[in-house]
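assembly run, all chains below
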Amino acid sequence: MSLWKIAWRSIQQRSLASALTALSMALGVSLVVAVFVVHGVVDLSFRRGGEGYDLIVGAKGGRQQLVLNTVFYMDKPTGTIPYSYYEEFVDGQFAPWTETVVPVCMGHDYEGIQVVGTTPDMFDLLTYRDGQKYKFARGRNFRVEEPFEAVIGATAAKETGLDIEKTFQAVHGGEPHEQEFTVVGVLEHTGTPNDRALFVNMDGFYKLHDHQRGEEGPGEEGPGEEGHEEQTDQHASAHEDSLDHDNRPSSKRVTAILLCVKALPLGQSRIIAQQINSGKDAQAVFPAKVIAGLLSGMVGNVQLILLIFAVTVVVVAGIGIMVSIYNSMNDRRHEIAVMRALGASRSTVMVVILLESILLSLGGGLLGLLLGHGAIGILAPLIVEQTGVAMGMFQFRPNELILIPGLVALATLVGYLPAMAAYRTDVAKSLTTTP
Amino acid sequence: MLYLKNVKKSFTQPDGSELPILDIDEFQVAAAEQMVLVGESGCGKTTLLHVISGISRPDSGRVKIDDWDITLLSEAECDRFRAKNIGYVFQTFNLLPGFSALENVLLAMRFSGENPDKGRAKHLLDRVGLSHRMTHKPTMMSVGEQQRVAVARALANKPKLLLADEPTANVDSGHQQQILDLVRETCGEEDVTLVLVTHSSEVAGQFGRIDHLEKFNQVAVNQ
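ok done. output:
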């Protein structure tokens, strides 16, 4: 008969008190699991967003604002850059170092979901999450020669009800454009912000405004122009700057450029970024670096606070275990004295009490893991829908591994006081008292 | 086998004064001998058993069991010695309530530091007539059955010495003789020295050797 079994029997003897203390530990641990998972979800959804390209080139301004807008479709653009600057990456001064270049134009939405003007390369050449190719759940990618074709993300399709062959009108400044885009493809779920966006042919994006101007006549300011006021604040829609009626590429502007650089010696991409940043037209940022900064700067602090709360709950639960065992010591002194009389040493009875504390902590901890992951299993569809991050019930995060040694350490600490009480039991005196 | 010399033991009272309990010049029991200690309540019978078993240390004197002076052993050594060499039957049985009859016997084996011998534990329970109660917990057993488990537990580690502290005091009269016979028979079968404490003259009368422990004159007198 092992000491573990002796400790377990002692727990069984006080089943109600043991169950309640283990439950309080379970709740604490499930909170810790929840914090880990929330952090994991936020971390993954943030980091995945910036995967698939090396650099973002956009108008000068806030680096974080550029990343938030270009990657996560949040915040407003830092401004726009000339289309000609984009061409420098296609066949100009930056072309030798460029492997893939994809322009994006923003400033429109549909039912609150960002409408992004881009090229088919966005889905043909760029990748996401560890180099995966974009796949279509239904339909196909839009074509260069069809300006009013669109591709939509999985979550956007679900939220808007749009599907193949359905049409939508991009809205700018609260007013929808007359021109309609036809959905030709629905992307498979990617777990990136692209799930929550509508992608249209960039040519069609430019033509929206040209069409509007044609109807309104020269000199009239269309609905989209109200953004000009914002443009001065660098909040412009990309096509608002396409003032050239001839639709010449040189007069167009783009919101940002997504760039994959060729395999270069270490530090070369940094030199390219420095070269871009030294010019007056644009800035280049490493999305992964900016996202990491965002995570550690803002999200990291929030996670730390949540983690402190959760760990406090676990510690309080641990103290509950200590109180529970310590309170039981009065009733158990006789039992401990009997064990001692049978030959158990002081250290043996001390170890039994410590093992009892460890069993209660670990039992509660395992229950907490089950509760936490059970909740994740239940909430997984909602998490996928809201964040695009797929979570499984049995998908454990590496930092959860710290829970096991952490709980054992906590249990040893909180079990020490009652264990010492057991250690100091006066055998002769306790044997003569009635149990 | 058991030899006590100049053993003194006293307790400190709340007012700080010392209350002498034991003052034994000499006391010895031969190997495999069965003897009984009688005396009125408070005369120190239980304290004497505690001192013999090493549960309590004497203030002075020597307690030798088979040439081992347990007063010279460290506490841990004394615990180990007790587990291996001394069986103890308590007046209130003192079975651990969370464990079955079999587990109570195995527990005693566990504390001796040896691998618990399940076969022997079962044999002992069979010997005390509880083969059908091995998995039952103490609360599911009668008083007589509980004391029989206590006897089996006391013999678990093949002790050289069995100390029985009023083993029949809490057993109904119908089972008193049965328990007493069981203790004496099993000790006889395993050549175990028996020191039995009782205040019952009926029980004492069945033993060939009866020692009286006098209150405030704690000298064991062989009769």
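Chain B has a mean pLDDT of 87.

Strands of chain B lie at 2-12, 18-29, 34-38, 60-65, 68-69, 86-89, 161-165, 193-198, 209-213, 220-222.

not gonna interpret more than that til we talk
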